[in-house]
Specification:
This protein is an alpha+beta fold. It is rod-shaped, with a radius of gyration of 33 Å. It has a 5-stranded antiparallel beta sheet with strand order 1-2-3-4-5, covered by helices on one side. Strands 6, 7, 8 and 9 form a 4-stranded antiparallel beta sheet that branches. It is built from 2 helices and 9 strands; from the N terminus they run ααβββββββββ. The protein has a domain of about 130 residues. The longest helix has about 55 residues.
Length: about 190
């Protein structure tokens, strides 16, 4: 019986002893390694998420700008493209929806300095902008816009407008947009817009 008692006492002493300092250090180091790996994965995932968000926003802005211009030209009775040093402006007389047809004057301005496309529309005529300062109150359609070919992003070929540019944002690849639209109106009518 004393041997059994000694064995039980030895097991009880071991159970109450706890962890040694070396064991605690090893467990702590293992915990740090696991947290480091998980933290690195989390940071990497956030960086990729930010890049995807920026790329998606750039793509959306570029497509919106191209669609705005091409839809306007398809519904226009006339348009003109003016080169202003490094900038460009497209002026158009555009039909609105509904019966009877209402006409409005629309313009799209590419600013090389701002690398942006702006839009403006009005039911009454307005002066053609001659610099980026003239479009201060206009709606920004897209930023980070760079022409894919020179000169500019707009090119007129007969009654058709070609739009070609790259949308760029920091940390993501460029998005190339190329589109064209033709005036569908049977009669070319520019007055009173330009």
């Amino acid at each position: 019986m004393p041997r059994l008692r000694q064995l039980i006492d030895r097991v009880d002493a071991t159970a109450e002893r706890g962890f040694t300092l070396v064991e605690l250090l090893i467990y702590g180091l293992l915990l740090l390694v696991v947290l480091g790996v998980v933290g690195g994965m989390l940071i990497s995932t956030q960086a990729v998420g930010t890049q995807v968000r920026e790329s998606t926003e750039t793509t959306s802005q570029a497509q919106l700008a191209a669609e705005s211009v091409t839809a306007g030209i398809r519904n226009a009775s006339a348009f003109q493209v003016a080169d202003l040093a490094d900038d460009q402006v497209v002026m158009a007389r555009v039909a609105g929806g509904g019966e009877p047809i209402t006409w409005r004057c629309m313009a799209w301005y590419y600013s090389d300095a701002d690398q942006a496309i702006y839009q403006h529309q009005s039911t009454s005529p307005f002066a053609q902008p001659t610099s980026a300062a003239d479009v201060a109150g206009w709606q920004l359609l897209a930023s980070g816009i760079v022409p894919t070919s020179l000169p500019g992003v707009f090119k007129r070929v007969n009654n058709q407008l070609e739009v070609a540019f790259e949308g760029r944002s920091p940390g993501s690849s460029a998005v190339t947009v190329s589109s064209s639209a033709a005036v569908r109106a049977q009669v070319w009518e520019a007055a009173p817009c330009f």
